[in-house]
């Protein structure tokens, strides 16, 4: 019998399916190694420990060993099961965890109790970081009531105010993650407040340029349109009422926002008000990176790890196919 590989998969439609695939990958190939930068935070320890018990990951925790052990004990976690490595401060923990991934010792990098900007700067370090020459960007993956598909939203956590060139790479990174989760080709909506190209709205003009580039085959692997307002991107009825004729309208898988403020409020509204199950990954680096907000619920961190396990396994196949 041929060995089971994960080159071809069915499109994942919800977090339950995503978790099942992550479990299967770990069953077949063993747990992925995850290097955690500054692990002295309860939600992080809980999430990596749950993923460890499920066999998804083998965590290597960088930080203050005493504090990590104390938090773990308070959570009822047996510390002898954890691999802990000393770092004298969060910046050093970010450096050591990043090096564990860039040296190939670990498969996934995860942010703990360290400022996002310090964590990201470590990943961008020219000597020992995880740069590929591509833009790094954050993608949120979430499921929503009443929809039979996963949504991808970017970028609400890394790129502050992307220009046209950066926005194109943000689209491409989100498309790569959709392919990783079997959604191929995904439908991409470039979000704006309007669905007409208003010359006074620079970002809507950029959206129209990106859509035209996609039409001409300059961006591959996805069906792309914009500008589209959120309602007519995800509701076929809204698109019909507004008379929008577009293969993406009402059917979008990927939602691209203009800047970090829009994306971050979008992300946190979903998690706090709508209580959706979500996960976040940084794409574009040499390995998947889990960057969740320090206050994010443990489930977001756990699901992000599961997504990273799939990405660590499938990214080489997805890159091969391009
Ligand atoms: N991808 C690849 N390379 C990048 C990126 C990127 N997204 N951003 C910067 N670089 C490279 C630049 O090309 C340059 O070579 C070097 O990194 C430094 O660039 P600067 O000076 O523009 O970058 P920094 O160090 O000032 O900032 C980069 C951050 C990622 C730290 C910054 O963009 C940031 O703070 N983003 C917001 C993070 C955040 O607070 N998120 C909160 C939500 S969790």
TrEMBL record:
<dbReference type="InterPro" id="IPR050500">
    <property type="entry name" value="Phos_Acetyltrans/Butyryltrans"/>
</dbReference>
<dbReference type="InterPro" id="IPR002505">
    <property type="entry name" value="PTA_PTB"/>
</dbReference>
<dbReference type="GO" id="GO:0050182">
    <property type="term" value="F:phosphate butyryltransferase activity"/>
</dbReference>
<protein>
    <submittedName>
        <fullName>Phosphate butyryltransferase</fullName>
        <ecNumber>2.3.1.19</ecNumber>
    </submittedName>
</protein>
<dbReference type="InterPro" id="IPR012147">
    <property type="entry name" value="P_Ac_Bu_trans"/>
</dbReference>
<dbReference type="Pfam" id="PF01515">
    <property type="entry name" value="PTA_PTB"/>
</dbReference>
<comment type="similarity">
    <text>Belongs to the phosphate acetyltransferase and butyryltransferase family.</text>
</comment>
<feature type="domain" description="Phosphate acetyl/butaryl transferase">
    <location>
        <begin position="92"/>
        <end position="301"/>
    </location>
</feature>
<keyword id="KW-0012">Acyltransferase</keyword>
<keyword id="KW-0808">Transferase</keyword>
